[in-house]
Structures are given as C-alpha cells and as structure tokens.
Amino acid sequence: MLGGVLACLGMVASSFCRTLSQLYLAAGFITGLGMCFSFQSTIIVLGFYFNRRQALANALASVGVSLGITLWPLLARYLLEDLGWRGTFLVFGGVFLHCCVCGAILRPVATSVAPETREGPPPPSKTPVPSCLAACGRAIQRHLAFDILWHNAGYRVFTLGVAWMILGFPLPHVFLVPYAMRHGVDEHRAALLISIIGFSNIFLRPMAGLVASRRDFAGHRKYLFSLAVLLNGLTNLVCAASADFRVLVGYCLVYSVSMSGVGALFFQVLMDVVPMDRFSRALGLCTILESISILISPPLAGFLLDTTDNFSYVFYMSSFFLISAALFMGGSFCALRKKERRQGRQAEAEAATLEAAPERALTVKGTDRSEKRLCTEIVYVTSV
C-alpha cells in the first residue's frame, strides 16, 4: 500500500515537471521505489500462501504483467493523443493508486516462526564497540542474502545467471518498435507488436505454470527455466534476420512462448533453491543485481546502435547474453546435481559399511585366569 502511494505521488509529480532531471527524480526514482515496494512484498506473500502448485500460482499472478504489456501501449497512445503527456501522467497516477486496494486485500499469513523471547539487557562487554562502518556492514549482511550467496551454490548459480541474462532480456521490448518503424512498418502496427506479445502471454503463462507444477517436472524446473532462456535468445536471431511485418508477428508469437516460460518459472526456481524462510532476503539481493543489469543494458545497447547504426547488432547482443546465461545455468545446475548424487552415494556407502560391520567376538579371561568367556564388542556411532 505504501508502494501504491509512492508510485501515485511520483506520477502526479511528473505531470508538473519542467526539466528532464525533475522527471528522472519523480517518474524514475519515486515511482520506481513505490513499484519495488509493491512488487517485492506481493511476491513474498504469494510464496507463503501456496504449498502446492506454486508454479501455477506464480504463473497466474504474473498474468497481470502480460495484461499490462497488452493494454499499456494502447492506453498510453490514446491518452497522449487526447490529454497530452501531463494528463497521461495524472491518469497513470490514478492507476498506480489502485495498488493500495490490492494491498488491502492481502490477508496476513500465519508463519511457523517462534516469537522472539524478551530477555533482560546483556551484561556489559569488555570488547570495544564496533565502528559505524562495521555495524553497517553487518546490517547489510543480515538483511541481504550475502550469506546465502556464499554458502548456497544453487542460489549463486541462479543469481549470477539471471543478472547476466537481464543484460539482454529487456532489449526487444525497448528496440522492437523503433526497429520495425525504421524498416517501414506503420507506427500503429509497430506498437501492436508489443501488444501481441502481452496478449499471447495471458494464455501461455498459465499453461507454462500447469506444466511446471506437475510432479514429473518438479525436479527439472531449473532445466526448463534454462531451456526457456535459451529459446528466448535463439528467437532474437530470427528477428534480426528480417524486418517484414509478418515475420515480426511470427517472432512475437514464438518470443511469447519463451517469455511465458521465463516469467512462470523465475520465482518458482528461486523458491526451489532457497528455503522459504530466507526467500525474502534472497529475492531482495537477486532484484538488486537485476536492477543493476537493467540500468546498464539499454544504454549499452543504445551506444552500440549509435556506433553501428544497425538494429541487428542490438538483437545479436541480446541473443549473446541470453544464450550464454542459459548455457551457464543449465551446465552449472547439471554439475551441482551430479555432485549431490555423488555425495549422496558416498554417504549411503559409509552408512551401509557401519551397519554391516560384524560383531567381533573378543576373548577375555576370567578372574581365575582359567575360565574364558566371549564378550561382544559394541560400536556406538556418535556422529555421521
């Protein structure tokens, strides 16, 4: 609800801006901060609501993104023509204010975490008080997931792979319409391409969630996610080959298939590699790295376009980041799975060896040194 208020205030303030720097602060920082609050908290609460079919729940929840991709370009163009950009920002502020309604209907979730016991003040310590810099470092490490990043190999692979993938993933959304218009496609038909992607995702994301929620694919969702990223990168090569409108429509349809897989499986894979009690911190660090990649990617592609004056290089750049990220994540997840299996077999072999150890009979002498009796040696396993 706080995110909805901030996003609304940022849009309303944007309608009164007179310079581009003011627009950066209002529409970029204030609205972006509000959208982060709303998005992050909703995804975390969604993970607590569902124990079964989480992949389907994530897919259905992300259908709203697809609906927004479908309607937002058409609504923005209509409002710009009738109200101008200042009036459009005011209407967008009213739309974002509805996030408060969405936040109000989120019911609190009862967690199984035990309440913290209140104890008395700790005894004075003789150790020196840590500096402000050290205290800030510990606070950052406590609230972000740097400890998970260091100890959890699966989370490390996923986070680094996604950060690398995001360098190429948003580029088609930014450059597809200018690319089509550069090659003679009408402005309205070019804007329709983004709506085709969003409309297709409305139906494809629930289908992807249904497939991913099946028990047969429960242990293979990481590989399905990598396969969707790989298909997304290969699709951009088709777009770079031709700029004909019919080819671009086919590109949008195939692109929607891979995009729906990425959107439906992204949060589910993160829930699979990280325990749910640490999911909020893990999602926070992953989102920060994604934001850095999104901040770098469009200016880098724009610099490449200004240097070469060829849109095809932008799509080649997008394909490179997506394909390399997919190969990295798929290969790393496969290697980690083989390592876990090998360690599991070793642990089972050690346990079997301890259980099958024969009881060794020891001969001990009696007190009179003439009588001998058998004594069974018992081995107690105190640690595994």
Describe this structure in words.
- This protein is mainly alpha-helical.
- The chain is 75% helix and 3% strand.
- It is built from 14 helices and two strands.
- It has helices at 2-14, 20-49, 54-61, 63-97, 99-104, 132-143, 146-151, 153-165, 171-182, 187-213, 221-241, 245-273, 279-308, 311-355, and strands at 361-365, 372-376.
- A hairpin with a 6-residue loop joins strand 1 (361-365) and strand 2 (372-376).
- Helix 9 (171-182) packs antiparallel against helix 10 (187-213), helix 11 (221-241) runs antiparallel to helix 12 and helix 13 packs antiparallel against helix 14.
- The two termini are 49 Å apart.
Topology:
Blueprint: H1 2-14, H2 20-49, H3 54-61, H4 63-97, H5 99-104, H6 132-143, H7 146-151, H8 153-165, H9 171-182, H10 187-213, H11 221-241, H12 245-273, H13 279-308, H14 311-355, E1 361-365, E2 372-376
Antiparallel strand pairs: 1-2
Helix pairs in contact: 1-2, 1-4, 2-13, 3-10, 3-12, 4-10, 8-13, 8-14, 9-10, 9-14, 10-12, 11-12, 11-14, 13-14
Overview in brief:
The chain is mainly α and 384 residues long. It has 14 helices and 2 strands. The chain crosses the membrane at residues 27-49, 56-75, 87-106, 157-179, 191-211, 223-242, 248-270, 282-301, 313-336.
Low-confidence stretches: 113-121, 359-364
Number of strands: 2
Shape: globular
Strand order of the largest sheet: 1-2
Count of helix runs: 14
What helical percentage do the residues reach? over 70%
**Largest sheet composition:** 2 strands, antiparallel
CA(first)-CA(last) distance? 49 Å
Rg (CA only):
28 Å
The chain-level mean pLDDT equals 81
Beta-strand residue fraction:
under 5%
GO molecular function, one term: monocarboxylic acid transmembrane transporter activity
Membrane topology: Multi-pass membrane protein
Subcellular location: Membrane
Protein name: Monocarboxylate transporter 6
